[in-house]
Amino acid sequence: MEYDYDIVFLGGGLNYAGAVVASKARLKCALVEKNPAHLGGTCLHNGCIPSKMYLAAADTVRASKKAHFSGSLSLDMAKLDEEKEALLARATKAIMKQCENVEIVEGEGVLTAPHTIEADGKTVTGRYVIIGTGSRPFIPEGIVYDSHSVITSDEVLNMREFPERIAIYGDGAIGLEMASFFASVGVETELIWRHDTLLRKAHPKISENAMKQMEALGVTLLPDHSIETAKKAKKGVHIRFSDGSEHHVPKLLVATGRRPNVEAVRNDAVAVDKRGIVTDEHFETTCKDHYAVGDCNGKLQLAHAARAEVLYVVRQILGEKPEPLNLNHVVKFIHTLPCSYAVVGETRSELEKRGVEYKESVVPLSGLPFPHTHDGDLGVMVVYADEDRFIMGGEVFCPGAEEIIAVVSMALAGEMDVKLARRTILAHPTFSESLERAFDRL
Ligand SMILES: Cc1cc2nc3c(=O)[nH]c(=O)nc-3n(C[C@H](O)[C@H](O)[C@H](O)COP(=O)(O)OP(=O)(O)OC[C@H]3O[C@@H](n4cnc5c(N)ncnc54)[C@H](O)[C@@H]3O)c2cc1C
Ligand SMILES: NC(=O)c1ccc[n+]([C@@H]2O[C@H](COP(=O)([O-])OP(=O)(O)OC[C@H]3O[C@@H](n4cnc5c(N)ncnc54)[C@H](O)[C@@H]3O)[C@@H](O)[C@H]2O)c1
């Protein structure tokens, strides 16, 4: 069969990175995107970039409240939104430029038959197909999303003024980041969730300190609460909990996870289950030469994972025989304020669940001068090693944890044992030196 393209990329989120690499290798590529102005996808337009921009601004407001500063600082949301829009426009233009040798096909694409995508009346065929259709917010049954009173992160990241009060439902990445954001800029914030701890898969000391940090930010915590119904009423949002009690808030942000976009698959050759598009360890679907990467395959919902997956697939197609990706070595993090949480490799909760022998080293940062002057009093460093003293993973809770964890990541990638990891002499005074101490104590 003759194909129009070597590769058709369906969805222009992190998939675009694969299209750029493949087109530079002179493969003929098409990228089908329903909204080309949103090239770069959720990460650029509704996710990583705007949320981290907001958190950086909020952290400045939070830090300015320290006793040794005078005066008060407030965040001009409309100005921040303007800056964000300008930044996103520049970034989208840069992506367009990188895609200059990729055919951008505008339209909602559907895989109607193997190698065949229909997009708003156009048909494109590809020798290979890479699906990267992303995910969208999941709204639990009983909650009526209306984009004004009951909202998701999409509305928060396009907000031009603050609500007087907000309740956030969900204790995952979005819930904790948004609670940190709103509380730091002075919005009365409530966090509602179904369990009794925060970061419940993290090391217990980190989980305990994450709770203390939320309290210190002034967030009202409502653990063990399950929302049965929530919808817009005269006085804001009316919430009924499963124990029958009622509650009113002006706005409810629902942050209870995201579900893969799988509707583009309309051919049984590509299997879909409740986690997303089914793929093997090479991201190949149940149909040969058809791949699914990023949020839509239900493996990890992280931009750097989506990018690594699509580049891995393109390298396979190019015949480079890349080393398989170890998704357990992908850094995961939640940007809470001031300490954020980052994790890579194995964790105590996972090791105990599987009954694996391990050694852990835990370094709390309270009382140390540098963490004290840099908002890291509640910080904790944890590293894990196996019976043969090889590094298995680590968890970091401190300002900038998502950067500091790179030390553990490199130790994992290099398959280092404790002796090798201890060779480093990291700078003083820093947070990373406490990680060095954690290796020393293993
Ligand atoms: C608030 C928030 C904050 C986040 N922060 C971080 C963070 O700090 N770090 C991190 O790593 N991750 C973060 N994420 C997650 C990250 O954004 C996603 O994991 C990442 O964007 C997934 O990339 P993707 O390419 O799989 O999907 P997407 O980026 O969602 O891209 C999918 C693309 O496909 C298009 N599309 C969908 N269906 C069709 C169709 N049928 N036809 C044509 N086009 C279609 C969409 O328009 C979109 O452009 C965050 C997410 C959110 C919501
Ligand atoms: N810093 C980052 O890397 C970052 C930041 C934001 C988002 N993200 C990505 O975006 C994805 C979505 O974020 P999220 O916070 O919405 O999802 P999440 O999976 O991180 O957390 C969802 C939370 O909602 C709860 N929940 C699930 N179903 C529920 C239900 N029916 N009722 C009540 N509670 C329920 C879960 O207990 C969970 O704690 C994440 O998987 C994450 O990978 C990443």
Description:
By secondary structure, the protein is α/β, with parallel strands linked by helices. The protein has three domains: 5-135 and 259-327, FAD/NAD(P)-binding domain (3-Layer(bba) Sandwich), CATH 3.50.50.60; 150-256, FAD/NAD(P)-binding domain (3-Layer(bba) Sandwich), CATH 3.50.50.60; 338-440, 2-Layer Sandwich (Enolase-like, domain 1), CATH 3.30.390. 31% of the residues lie in helices and 25% in strands. The protein contains 14 helices and 24 strands. It has helices at residues 15-24, 41-45, 48-63, 77-98, 153-156, 173-184, 204-217, 303-317, 348-354, 369-373, 401-404, 406-413, 418-421, 432-440, and strands at 5-10, 29-33, 102-106, 109-113, 116-119, 122-131, 135-137, 150-151, 165-169, 188-192, 220-222, 227-233, 236-241, 246-249, 252-254, 258-260, 272-273, 276-277, 290-292, 332-334, 340-345, 359-364, 380-385, 391-398. The strands form six sheets. Strands 1, 2, 3, 4, 5, 6 and 19 form a seven-stranded mixed β-sheet that branches. A five-stranded parallel β-sheet has the order 8-15-9-10-11. Strands 20-21-24-23-22 form a five-stranded antiparallel β-sheet, sandwiched between helices. Helix 1 (15-24) links the parallel strand 1 (5-10) and strand 2. Helix 1 (15-24) packs parallel to helix 8 and helix 3 (48-63) packs parallel to helix 6 (173-184). It is globular, with a radius of gyration of 23 Å. It starts with a strand and ends with a helix. The mean pLDDT is 97. Bound molecules: flavin-adenine dinucleotide (FAD) and nicotinamide-adenine-dinucleotide. Nicotinamide-adenine-dinucleotide binds next to helix 6 and strand 20. Nicotinamide-adenine-dinucleotide (NAD) binds next to helix 6 and strand 20.
